[in-house]
Amino acid sequence: MTELTLFSTPFGTELPAILNLPADADTLFVFGHGSGSTINIPLLAALSEALGRFRIASLRFEYPYSSDPDFIPFSDMPVDDNEVLMATMRAALEFGLQKYPELKALVGGHSMSAFIATYADADVPLPAAGLVSL
Predict the structure, then answer these.
(1) Closest CA to 58 of 100, 90, 88, 87
(2) For residue 31, which of 100, 103, 112, 124 has the smallest C-alpha distance?
(3) For burial by CB atoms within 10 Å, which of 13, 79, 90, 124 has the most?
(4) 27-32/2-8 β-pairing
(5) Which of 121, 117, 124 has the alpha carbon at shortest distance from 60?
(6) Distance CA 54, CA 93 (A)
(7) Are 19 and 5 contacting, i.e. CB atoms less than 8 angstroms apart?
(8) Are 95 and 57 in contact (CB under 8 A)?
(9) d(C-alpha 67, C-alpha 16), whole Å
(10) Number of CB atoms found within 10 A of residue 116's CB
């Protein structure tokens, strides 16, 4: 099952995320995209589909800057500062953990999001079984 959902941020906004939940999932990978892209790039969609074949659910989420209607993927538009990116990642992870507490959680992402996951975990450990850097 794949569905578009929304998660709340500490900034009082809701951001979109795409959940891919195989019926037999035992793990949830919560991950973000690279700085110039969005949750809709083919690489992340294919990754989510492939992970599902291994019983890994995925929740790929947007950041505030990339959900802005004026955002142009792969342009030189600025991204949010690291504090906003880390808080958004934490909010997406908490959403996943609350919605699916029975699943073991992994967190990370592609490019910028891999960096942000590592940075966030070094600041205050993330409540996940592991970090994944793509």
Answers:
(1) 100
(2) 112
(3) 90
(4) unpaired
(5) 117
(6) 20
(7) yes
(8) no
(9) 8
(10) 26
Q: How far apart are CA 94 and CA 72, in angstroms?
A: 28
Length of the chain: 134
Q: Are 55 and 28 in contact (CB under 8 A)?
A: no
| Among 47, 66, 64, residue whose Cα is nearest residue 133 | 47
> What secondary structure, in 3-state letters, does the chain show?
CEEEEEEECCCCCEEEEEEECCCCCCEEEEEECCCCCCCCCHHHHHHHHHHHCCCEEEEEECCHHHHCCCCCCCCCCCCCCHHHHHHHHHHHHHHHHHHCCCCEEEEEECCHHHHHHHHHHHHCCCCCCEEEEC
Distances, alpha carbon 55 to alpha carbons 24, 86, 104, 110, in Å: 6, 27, 11, 20
* pLDDT of the chain, 134 residues: tens digit per residue: 899 999 999 999 999 999 999 999 999 999 999 999 999 999 999 999 999 999 999 999 999 999 999 999 999 999 999 999 999 999 999 999 999 999 999 999 999 999 999 999 999 999 999 999 99
